[in-house]
Amino acid sequence: MKVRSIVSHKGELFAYMRGDQLFTLEGELSGRIDGDYMVDLAGRKIWRLRGDGIYALDGFEPFGYMSEPRIENEFLD
Predict the structure, then answer these.
(1) What is the rounded CA–CA span in Å between residue 27 and residue 30?
(2) pLDDT tens readout for residues 43-66
(3) In which band, very low, low, confident or very high, does the pLDDT at 75 lie, cut at 50, 70 and 90?
């Protein structure tokens, strides 16, 4: 399965994607991708997605970005 890091505009890792699901760094499911949006577990839009960019809902204020997809455990021997 593909995994992507979620990094703030300050360069801080704060979440990750596994497939289309969003997880906290503690491994708790907290949302998913729904079209051009990231939604929480209740289905409420929390961020707008454009390519790898993550933006505020009320415009194009950058919030962060998603890293290049990696295969889970790709670098473990």
Answers:
(1) 9
(2) 999 999 999 999 999 988 999 999
(3) low
Contact 22, 32 (CB under 8 A): yes
The model's pTM? 0.85
Residue type, 43: G
Residue type, 68: E
Which residues make beta-bridge pairs with 71? 2
The DSSP line for 22-69 is EEETTS-EEEEEETTEEEETTS-EEEEEETTEEE-TTS--EEEEE---
Q: 43, 42, 4, 36: which is closest to 23 by C-alpha?
A: 4
Domain parsing of the chain, residue ranges? 2-67
Residue 12, amino acid: E
